[in-house]
Design goal:
By secondary structure, the chain is of the alpha+beta class. Helix content is about 30%, strand content about 35%. The chain contains 7 helices and 10 strands. The protein has a 10-stranded mixed sheet with strand order 3-2-1-4-5-10-9-8-6-7, sandwiched between helices. The radius of gyration is 19 Å and the shape is globular. It starts with a helix and ends with a helix.
């Protein structure tokens, strides 16, 4: 049976218990079934404290490109419109000039984590500096938002950071970039972890689709669509 992705997406959207706009989460997960690589790029919706899978595509092996991300966003927008989007949240993999330029051109609000070793240009004085240098006085356990525009990957954005001790007991600097001024960026960004929990449930902690060992892409797409519903 040819299970249409668009029909599945529209059904899930119609069943959502809250009205738009919705905050969107973008992430990628992958695993191997024998010699077959399953690499999924997913766009999900934050709703009532959980992440609901919405639109996905299967990718070739490796990380995503700007074309993959833009293509997935365009599919969502074609079905549900830009007005249904609150803001988009994503991890460090989802940066780069072409991608950020697309979000800027489409006026899609975002909060995205970026590597602290990346460079930023201060719009006021034109100085180029490593992002970690912007927050070199930030104390452990503290959060800082800077209400000034910076240029990162050729695009204007705002910066927020938090210095904390990670699970390996090492001090880490988490830096977020945002489309709009976001003094509470970290409060919003914490919802991004919902998609990690969703992937865990899909793969090995509930639905267990890893255990099916499907290797044909079209069959796996059908299975994932059914599980999404």
């Amino acid at each position: 049976y040819n299970l249409s992705g668009e029909v599945v997406y529209k059904l899930i959207f119609a069943l959502l218990p809250e009205e738009p706009p919705y905050d969107l989460l973008m992430d990628r997960t992958n695993w191997k079934s024998g010699s077959f690589d399953i690499n999924i790029l997913m766009l999900s919706i934050c709703c009532k404290g959980t992440s609901i899978p919405m639109v996905f595509c299967l990718l070739p092996k490796g990380s995503t490109s700007a074309a993959h991300r833009i293509g997935l966003m365009e599919r969502y927008i074609k079905l549900f419109g830009k007005k249904s989007i609150g803001k988009l949240m994503a991890d460090r993999e989802f940066t780069g000039e072409a991608w950020l330029s697309y979000l800027w051109a489409e006026k899609i609000k975002y909060i995205i984590r970026i590597k602290d070793g990346s460079y930023a240009i201060n719009r006021k004085n034109g100085k180029r500096i490593k992002i970690k240098g912007v927050f070199n006085r930030l104390a452990l356990g503290k959060t800082q938002y800077i209400p000034e525009l910076f240029i990162i990957h050729g695009n204007y954005c705002y910066l927020s950071a938090r210095r904390f001790v990670n699970r390996n007991m090492k001090i880490e600097l988490m830096v977020l970039i945002s489309f709009d001024p976001e003094p509470g960026a970290f409060d919003s960004y914490m919802h991004r972890w919902q998609i990690e929990s969703m992937f865990k449930a899909l793969k090995s902690s509930g639905f267990n689709i890893e255990d099916t060992h499907l290797r044909e892409a079209h069959r796996f797409q059908k299975l994932l669509s059914i599980v999404m519903i």
